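Posted in: Structural Biology > Protein-Ligand Complexes

Title: Requesting predicted complex, zinc ion in pocket

I'd be grateful if someone could produce the 3D structure tokens for the following input. Sequence and ligand are given below.
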Amino acid sequence: MWTCEKCGREFKRINQSHFCIEIESVDNYINQFPIKEQAVLKSIKEIVARNFVDSEETIKWRMPTYNKNNKTIHFANHKNHINLFIGEEVLSQLKEDCMEFQMHNGNIKFDKSRDIPYDLVEKLVIYKNNM
Ligand SMILES: [Zn+2]
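-- Reply #1 --
Done. Output follows.
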């Protein structure tokens, strides 16, 4: 695997030519993906921005990141799934809602072959906001 230093995307071939955009904002991040995926990512962005009230939106570790009072939420688009980093505490408190999804180190993984559970995303973000 080769990682482009500018945009952070990974490719099988070294120096693979690609549409390279440096990721400076969450909108930049979302716009690098195909239109169909952008819609899903925009919905997640809106849910996080609306419910993690007064959080600061930024890019950290090349991921959309929302910070507020030392609390952080990230999300990241991968080939076959979307990761939402919401933190161990939220996932353990709401584990009955999350049972059908894979979780690891505070991340919950949503398979793109299935519908993204926006209601659950909202519930997790609201819980984190009120923690
Ligand atoms: Zn690049």
